[in-house]
Amino acid sequence: MKYFCVFIACVFTIQAKSLSIDSLQHALKIQTDTNEVKTLNELCYAMVFYDVVTAKQYGFKALEKAKKLNYTLGAAKACIRLGIAYDITSQYDSCIHYYNQALTWYNAINDSKGKASALNNLAMVYNNQGLYDKAVKMYFEALKAFETLKDTVGMANTLNNIAVLYNDTYKNKLALQYANQALKLYQAVHHKKGIAAVYTNISLSFNEINNDSIVYYAKKAIAIKEELNDQYGLGISYNDLGLAYNDGKKYDSALIYLNKSFEIKNNYNDRFGMASVLINRSNTHASKQNYKQQLNDLLLAYNLAQDIKSYRLLSRISFGLSVYYKRMNDYKNAYSYRSKYTIYKDSLMSEETTKQINELEARYQSEKKDLEIENKNLELLKTTAQLSKKRTQLLLLIAVFVTLTLAALLFYITYNNRQKQKSIKLQVEQEQLRNIAVITAEDEERKRIAKDLHDGAGQQLSAIKMNLSALAHKNSDKALNNIMEQLDEAVREVRNVSHMMMPTVLLSNGIIEAIKNLAYKINQSKQLNINTRFVDLTHDLDEKVQTTLYRIVQECFNNIIKHAQATEVNLQLIQHPKHLTLMIEDNGKGFTPDNKQFGMGLRNIESRVLYINGILHIDSSPGNGTTITIEIN
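Given the sequence above, the corresponding structure tokens read:
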């Protein structure tokens, strides 16, 4: 199963739009021409790891439409997606056909990135078949193309696939080097799927080196794939983890993960994957001495491998069957499968193939270094030739530029600061004027309404009461007495409203008596216990200041009653030589002060404090009550 991690990299060669299947299907209904081809391709890609049959249908429609429109790029992308669909189901002949078709079309339009992607995918298929010489040649060709394009994800995909090939050819340390290069590139662009694929590959690189490391990296890969709901990738990682548990002799845990992997592979009809899982599961059954299950798994895997003509799998299965029959003392079958194993192994990994892989690796590294040296030498020559000629001009230009830049910067900073100061000053003045106008109009309206209630409706009600009172002395009718009681209530209500709008005690006796009177009424209502303290209030306060302070105190008491859940309030009004301090403290639930979240009550208080040129400070925290302090100069 360790060979399967290369398959995941195939996905990354296609840059699919992050659209949901539903939105793509909706968009398809109203699209025509090349846009229809693009959407069909995206639907094919979106469905390929969930419903491969439907994915193929979209891919074929995209290919047919692209051919009719002579839309070469669309046809090439459709072939790539169809190649992936056939790759998943291990139909390698069809897969190779469509990848080669894509390669032809990408060459026709000189699309370097598309060509590199097609080569990468083709190499992956050849690697699965065990044709390592073809695979490695295409991998390095694709890698060079991606490096020229500076395509980070493309380079990472190919490096990871090369690491897989080296794992398959038992060069685990070399595989680990390439996997780590891929990991750095994926991490640089935060490519989660790529990081998970590399973790899978790194875990395989520790095969026969460190079993704990295999488990560690397999679990890291699984965590990311579960987060991304990458079912196909989980099928790979579950198999790897099962294999690691088998090597660690944790056979029950191994079977759990191998069964999970087989179920996923079976859902995708991934015959290559199913056969690989069956091979690993047969080894676990053998370790548990479940020889019947071992044979069943091996024979089923052998049939699957024959269907897809995978010599690599057939080699492993033949070896397993020869060991099984030898244990059962069936030497005829043991010899037969041992012979098949030798044939398959020789066809897979000849000495010549290994030599070709090493030569291609060495040639790639050599060409890469030569190109880097050549480019550096060329740049050095150009720089040396131009440096002498441009030095004087450059120094002069720098001097002029620095002078002009400093002058412009100084002018800009000065001008910008002045404009900001003007703007801030204007905003403050406008805000103050607005507040003054609103509060003045509000107080004047309160006075007018209070006067109208007192002098108008209040006196009329009093007159009516007097007339009814005289009538009541002559007539003891019960209904008349009820009317008198209702009229008394109305008179009291009008007086209360008039007093709240503009209390007469404030106008006649000043701020101290007005606040005391307000506190007394609230204390009588049993809603709060308010304590008042006035210090050194010997100077006459301006009427505007008294009225505003009274409104602030009213608003504070209202807020405490509505929101604070307090039982005790302490109010202090202190006259200092040059300023006045109002402090209101409650023992309520408190809150976190934030200007952005002030309610209407606190905003009214803030506006009135600004109206009399005061400074407002609120000290509060959840569970510790609230203290409001106002300083007036």
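The domain at 270-349 is CATH 1.25.40.10 (Serine Threonine Protein Phosphatase 5, Tetratricopeptide repeat). Try to locate this feature in the token string yourself.
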